[in-house]
Amino acid sequence: MSERVISPAVIKRLPRYYRYLGELIENEVVRISSKELSIKMKVTASQIRQDLNNFGGFGQQGYGYNVQYLYDEIGKILGLDNQQNMIIIGAGNLGQALANYDFSRVGFKVIGIFDANPRLEGLAVRGIEIQMVDELEEFVKSHSVDVATLTVPKKNARPIASKLEELGIRAIWNFAPTDLKVSDDVCVKNVHLDESLMTLSYNLRHRGNEKYSYNSYMND
Ligand code: NAI
């Protein structure tokens, strides 16, 4: 498959295709037309065809899509076909909640959890002992770390992000409510649950009003 620039809007929709296709596989659906998929996903069939044409189509006119094949191919495009190792910095409420979640379904494995609070040292979350943040450097040098999740207070996020960059980490999943200052070599994905909640609030406030309607099925 040749490398070409894919629009961010398409990339943003891929995880949703992946999730729906995963559900279809669970329900033992083998083949699906773009029309059926469009009804299920509440987007137009032409949108689906256009999106998937970015990657070579995958469908056969009149036969629809092979669900497993499409799922696997989208997984490859998203880079989910290889396990990616994740560390979590900040083992407070959110860090522990994330560490407790099984991300292996989308190819991520938590291999290390770090905090600055000595009272948390050695406490195990899903079988992984929390280590002190001063052990981070040694850990990163001796393990293959693909992604670092940042769940520290806002004021500490930037220095840690710089340290992670210095250690060669190239992807940060940032939950701290601040813009990190890292070079373009580092991919940063900021997550803001409160923005999602504000959109929900908007939907609630304006429900039933066509003029302000927002497609609540689309993910943030
Ligand atoms: P928390 O206070 O429970 O946990 C923060 C942890 O970070 C503590 O265990 C603390 O010891 C540790 N920590 C502080 N400085 C550190 C350092 N330099 N190195 C390593 N560990 C360090 O806070 P909570 O509720 O877990 O929130 C964590 C962060 O996530 C905050 O920045 C918060 O604003 C943010 N947050 C973001 C959300 C989002 O949707 N993006 C939702 C909820 C929280």
The portion of residues forming beta strands comes to 15-25%
Task: Please state the average pLDDT score.
Answer: 90
Distance N to C terminus: 28 Å
Oligomer: single chain
Task: Please explain how this structure is put together.
The chain has a 7-stranded mixed beta sheet. Strands 1-2 form a two-stranded antiparallel sheet. With 220 residues, the protein is of the alpha/beta class. The chain is built from 8 helices and 9 strands. It has helices at residues 8-26, 34-41, 45-53, 67-77, 93-100, 136-142, 154-166, 193-206, and strands spanning 31-32, 65-66, 84-89, 108-115, 124-125, 128-132, 147-150, 171-174, 187-190. The protein is globular and about 60 Å long. The structure holds 1,4-dihydronicotinamide adenine dinucleotide.
Summarize the structure.
The protein is of the alpha/beta class and 220 residues long. The protein contains 8 helices and 9 strands.
Please give a handful of descriptors for the protein shown.
single chain; alpha/beta; seven-stranded mixed sheet; about 220 residues; binds 1,4-dihydronicotinamide adenine dinucleotide; globular; two-stranded antiparallel sheet
Task: Record the SSE blueprint.
Elements: H1 8-26, E1 31-32, H2 34-41, H3 45-53, E2 65-66, H4 67-77, E3 84-89, H5 93-100, E4 108-115, E5 124-125, E6 128-132, H6 136-142, E7 147-150, H7 154-166, E8 171-174, E9 187-190, H8 193-206
Parallel strand pairs: 3-4, 3-7, 4-6, 7-8, 8-9
Antiparallel strand pairs: 1-2, 5-6
The chain binds 1,4-dihydronicotinamide adenine dinucleotide (NAI).
